[in-house]
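Example (one chain per record):
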Amino acid sequence: MAAFTGSMSLTIQQVFFPASGWGQSMTEQVVKDDVEELVREIARALVDDPGAVEVDAVSREESTVLRLKVAPQDVGKVIGKQGRTARSVRTILGAVSMKLHHRYTLDILEEEKNGATPGE
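Predicted structure:
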């Protein structure tokens, strides 16, 4: 696997410690967009086809579900051996959730053979 040589436009430090200050809150939309962008950039760094990466946020009262779609040949790369890569991304989201007092979960969507994703 090739090493990631690009730069992520959003760093983990920016999510945990925004420029506005460590303890200051940001608007919900900005935070949701930042977390969405964080997951998108992590996924782009892992896959062979970064242009196919899509992250959709489904907000609910107390949580936000981030639905990650990648090219069919890249699903294994974002899941990893025995789910370790997916678990690592979910661990990062758990830390973000604790910091922001809002639960974020990750769903990795697989396309079915007819091109549709399950549940649609």
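Caption: The two ends are 32 Å apart (CA to CA).
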